[in-house]
Design a protein that fits this description.
The structure holds two protein chains of two kinds. Chain A is 41% helix and 6% strand. Chain A is mainly alpha-helical. The chains are: A mainly alpha, B mainly beta.
């Protein structure tokens, strides 16, 4: 008698638990947590593409930014001096170590209080607006020398604006072609 | 001067080779090229609202109009904006976007339960927006429970660069850019995610943040 009562109690308890979990989860069993693993990563335009060797691009993409400086600064410097053997300093008076130290940690610096521009003549690395000519800025810093006048054929591509006018309101990007 | 330039050009050609593509990050890494995980660019700027910041992550570059009409986001690809608000280059907050086949669902800005290359969806959905179809006359937008504005869909690629001429320089068949450049990205589209976020949600006391974009594949 006692034993079968226990059995019934357990069965009822089991049913209650089943009902409780049914109600809670709306008939679907609890889903396993889904994880996502790095595919691509980027911040400053063209940096990875210019400075990272083809064989290391996937490695760079999978390196967290806080580890990038130690892993890539020396390689960036080697690449910079290979690209521009005459590099001394640039228009920002950065040495090769300073420039590559900045660029190796691939994050986009953004001001949350002031102007936001990759470079607009005044504000440097405070964001990236749609109209910023980021390629010219980078070419100038890599090839332009301390006065910005070295290698004149390589310091600007002479494409100075987008092919469509940006919107002044959200979502800001122009409609597709 | 002339000799200098030639040396630079020759060095570029030797180091990088003729097949090199230089775009903002278009077709950047072998493992992601041609996939929904391929990020082309990230932008961050002050939009119409001075107390917010706009983040744009573009993917799947160089889409022709025809290709755009059938382009889709991938339900197995998490698009993530990482936000470091104390200047240690480690994400303190993330904004996540995941496609469910119809809508783009957004999470955050929220502190992630773990930092680094492996992620899960964090917290509750904060905004949902239908992906704007290619044929739509106007972009579909939505505002989230935390005040973020969101958009997802095809847009003109805002990037501009004479990549073709650059490739000639790399290949050693040209010594510099042309007086009038030709935008290699004109007439091409990307699949965009745009989020406008009140600065109050970014957790910065210094007025500065560092951001980067990631795409992560479901494992």
């Amino acid at each position: 008698m006692k034993k079968s009562f226990l059995h019934i109690s357990l069965a009822v308890a089991g049913l209650l638990i089943t009902f409780a979990s049914c109600k809670k989860d709306d008939t679907t069993p609890p889903a396993a947590v889904v994880y996502y693993e790095s595919g691509d990563q980027m911040a400053r335009p063209a940096i990875a593409t210019v400075f990272v060797d083809a064989t290391e691009k996937d490695k760079f993409n999978g390196t967290i930014p806080s580890a990038m400086g130690a892993a890539f600064q020396a390689k960036f410097k080697t690449k910079l001096l290979a690209l521009n053997p005459g590099y001394t300093t640039n228009a920002l008076t950065q040495t090769a170590d300073q420039l590559t130290g900045l660029l190796a940690t691939d994050v986009l610096n953004v001001s949350t209080t002031g102007a936001t521009s990759f470079y607009d003549g005044t504000n440097l690395l405070t964001g990236r607006t749609l109209s910023d000519d980021v390629i010219d800025t980078e070419l100038l810093l890599l090839f332009g020398g301390p006065a910005g006048s070295s290698n004149p054929g390589l310091t600007k591509d002479n494409v100075n604006a987008n092919d469509k006018v940006f919107l002044t309101a959200f979502p800001y990007l122009a409609s597709p072609w | 001067m002339k000799k200098n330039k030639v040396i630079v050009v020759a060095a570029v050609a030797v180091i990088l080779g003729g097949s090199f593509l230089w775009a903002a990050d278009h077709i950047d890494a072998p493992a992601v090229t041609g996939q929904a995980t391929d990020i082309t660019d990230i932008y961050a700027f002050k939009g119409a609202d001075a107390s917010s910041r706009v983040f744009v992550v573009n993917t799947q570059g160089l889409l022709s109009p025809g290709a755009t009409s059938t382009a889709k986001f991938d339900a197995n690809t998490l698009i993530e904006i990482n936000i470091d608000n104390n200047n240690d280059n480690i994400e303190d907050l993330v904004i996540q976007a995941i496609y469910d086949g119809t809508n783009m669902k957004f999470y955050g800005p929220v502190a992630p339960s773990a930092t680094g290359t492996k992620s899960k969806l964090e917290g509750a959905v904060t905004a949902t927006v239908a992906v704007t179809p290619y044929s739509a006359g106007a972009p579909i937008m939505a505002t989230g429970t935390n005040g973020i504005k969101v958009f997802a869909g095809p847009r003109d690629d805002p990037f501009f660069f004479d990549l073709t001429q650059f490739k000639k320089i790399i290949a050693g068949t040209a010594t510099g850019f042309n007086a009038t450049g030709d935008d290699t990205f004109k007439g091409t589209n990307v699949m965009s995610v745009v989020v406008e976020v009140p600065v109050s949600l970014l957790g910065t006391s210094t007025g500065k943040i560092n951001i980067w974009a990631e795409t992560k594949k479901k494992i």
